[in-house]
Design goal:
Elements: E1 20-22, H1 38-49, E2 54-61, H2 81-93, E3 97-103, H3 111-114, E4 119-120, E5 130-131, H4 134-154, E6 158-162, H5 168-173, H6 188-191, H7 193-206, E7 211-216, H8 225-238, E8 243-247, H9 267-270, E9 278-282, H10 288-296, E10 301-304, H11 306-310, H12 314-320, H13 333-338, H14 343-352
Parallel strand pairs: 1-2, 1-10, 2-3, 3-6, 4-5, 6-7, 7-8, 8-9, 9-10
């Protein structure tokens, strides 16, 4: 069986020292213009110090109009380079691989936040989003690629394309949301054209030294498990990416689709022919044993969210104790502050996750 503390090499880019990856986590700590704050710097570098093999930023928006939440990190302008450069260098200095997640919220961009109607593959009455022109879709692809180049210039060794959770790449993949009739809509091949164009463009322009990943979610937001599997399998056969990050919500759950029940959702991705492409999973991994369970089930690495929030040094704790478990909930605001969370991050956790932060 693979150990959590074995190194992990990829087709391109650096080798991870272990199998623990910090998941890209919303935290609302950056400045309004998307530049890095000291609070964001502390949060991320503490995880690099705590032993994560790869430390990933929150979702960083690649267009100003793609902002999904207040206090979001940006990567759409060269004005972001000084902070990103400082952050990447500090993460790398701790022996962790520095990664940045590329994001665009699409129809999930709040109109009050971006000051105009959000963008979507098709008009969406509920959110007030408008359909993108074909030229705007081409610009979206270009801006994802340009953001990857910007991240590389800043010293990041890896970028991950956010194709999950109902954001814009996911919106294009969804046959429910995407009602286009041009080359970006209709068949799965057409709906997947955006994500394939982005990853191919990043590889072409960033070269062989960039570790390139993609995050997908196989359910919700109009996603169909069989279609997500098909996209993942094609990417793996082409070796278009170095790793696939599957956001499962719970690594032990069964699919919600009745036709696929009877086995774990995770198993529908561990059984793909992935060659040299690596597979990671996220979803309620709260103990060292849960992390090892995922590796034993056939994945290559695990991404930690809440466990990493609760323990800046989760990997080192797991190294010292194979029975390590995350702290029981709720925890105090002072506890989270001691783990490197700022007041805005703690406030966000109070509102987003009931029962996570104890009432004062």
């Amino acid at each position: 069986m693979t150990s959590l503390f074995e190194p992990l090499a990829f087709l391109h880019g650096p080798t991870l020292a272990n199998r623990f990856v910090l998941a890209p986590l919303t935290n609302q700590q950056s400045h309004p213009d998307g530049t890095l704050s000291e609070e964001e710097f502390i949060w991320l570098t503490r995880r690099a110090q705590g032993g994560f093999g790869l430390t990933m930023t929150c979702a960083a928006h690649v267009q100003r109009v793609g902002q999904g939440f207040p206090g979001q990190l940006g990567v759409f302008s060269d004005a972001h380079l000084p902070g990103l450069t400082r952050l990447a260098a500090a993460i790398r200095a701790e022996g962790s691989v520095a990664a940045l997640q590329l994001h665009h919220a699409g129809m999930r961009s709040p109109q009050a936040l971006i000051g105009e109607a959000p963008l979507c593959p098709s008009d969406d009455e509920k959110t007030g989003a408008r359909a993108m022109t074909e030229a705007e879709v081409e610009q979206l692809i270009e801006d994802f690629i340009a953001a990857a180049q910007r991240a590389q210039k800043a010293g990041f060794q890896s970028v991950e394309v956010h194709g999950a959770h109902g954001y814009i790449v996911c919106q294009f993949l969804s046959s429910e949301i995407n009602q286009r009739t041009d080359r970006f809509g209709g068949s799965l091949e057409n709906r997947a054209r955006v994500v394939f164009s982005i990853v191919r463009g990043i590889r072409e322009r960033c070269g062989p030294d960039m570790l390139l990943g993609l995050r997908l979610s196989p359910e919700r937001f109009g996603m169909k498990l069989d279609e997500v599997r098909e996209v993942a399998q094609t990417l793996m056969r082409e070796e278009a990416i170095d790793y696939l990050d599957m956001s499962l919500w719970d690594v032990r759950k069964e699919p919600t689709d009745e036709a696929f029940k009877g086995r774990s959702l995770m198993s529908y991705f561990t059984d793909l022919e992935r060659g040299a492409v690596r597979l990671g999973v996220a979803g309620k991994v709260s103990t060292a044993a849960e992390a090892q369970y995922c590796l034993d089930a056939g994945v290559d690495f695990v991404l930690l969210g809440k466990g990493a929030i609760l323990h800046a040094d989760f990997p080192e704790q797991a190294r010292a104790n194979a029975r390590f478990e995350q702290a029981p909930l709720p925890v105090s605001a002072d506890y989270l502050s001691a783990q490197g969370l700022s007041d805005p991050f703690v406030t966000y956790m109070k509102g987003a996750f009931a029962g996570f932060v104890a009432a004062e």
